[in-house]
Amino acid sequence: MKKNKKKRAGRWGRLLVSLCFVVIGAFCGVWIAQFLEETQLSGRPVLEQVLLVALLLFLLYVAMLLQIILHEAGHLVAGLLTGYRFGSFRVGGWMWLRTDGKLRCRRLSLLGTGGQCLMIPPEMRDGKFPYVLYNLGGSLMNLLTGALFLLLHGLLRGLPAVSLFCAMLSATGFGFALINGIPLRLGAINNDGCNARELGKDPEALRSLWVQLKITEQAARGGRLRDMPEAWFALPAWEQMDNSMTAALAVFRVNWLMDRHQFVEAKDLIDEILERPNRVLGLHQGLLQCEQLFLALMAGEDQARIDAICTRGLQKFMRQMRRYPSVIRTGYAYARLRLRDSQLADRLLEQFQHCERTYPYQGDLEGERELLELVKVRAEETAG
């Protein structure tokens, strides 16, 4: 009954988000139509009409991108106000993080995410730390800037193009505020508003948020997962992992086991998680399937089993995440151990070396290099 209720909540959440985007599009469409009428577009050459419409659509994309940046900035400001310290700030594939006392720019693209602001939380006291404003900061920033740009839209009517752009910023701001601020369950995950409401009711989920932020802090300093406290990766019972925040901790434990080369335990845990796919993010599911394929290759499982894991869906995911170190490593293992394609393997090694120059977490790269060496050893053993 509880599981069906969560599924219904997830469907309703996705429906409301879709409806919100439709409303944003409708408002922007009306404003664009008014602008085109004022500029007397119908009397212009066809090419000019097409270019103008394309430019307006591009401006709408820019408005959405700016509101994503403002949303993450809202988390940043809210975190600083409640005792957090700066960790990292990512927009698209560009990421700024503090490491060795300096602010550095790195590259990290995560499928399905437009941006992310990760802060270093204050220490927990009696199992608690501030979380409400940090979670709601992004939505509040979208709401405030939405109101500001709506005011500017009215004040700048004498500058039609600027006024239209302000209207777009206002619509997307209010839309993002609603999508993220109203408590919604979106598929397997809770949005910011739902987290702000639910974390206080679920001590395990609150601990999981704190642990994940602390892991990210250590990773930014070049730390290895294997060297972090084992207590951070302790898992509650599966019945307590209905919250995606807590379920994500199981994924971190898999990564911790992989970094310690405890491959049997990692395989067993991956199998358990993938039996409950609705509890973790789609991104995490894909990364776990990559690890499942890697472990099957290293264990010398038969080709039928390997081909069953390496589905078209997983191959598509690996193409989309082709710059992610663990995905490159899995692709390398597949090229060496399944395809026996040395040229493809060499290209993947070059891709990994390129990734090393821009990837933000040096400890992760150190662990991936060790796993790549194990692949080479395994390939030589099977070749002999």
UniProtKB/TrEMBL annotation:
InterPro entries in the record: Peptidase_M50B-like
Keywords: Membrane, Transmembrane, Transmembrane helix
Designated name of the protein: M50 family metallopeptidase
Entry keyword annotation includes Transmembrane helix: yes
Superkingdom classification of source: Bacteria
Transmembrane segments: 12-34, 46-66, 131-152, 158-179
Pfam families recorded: Peptidase_M50B
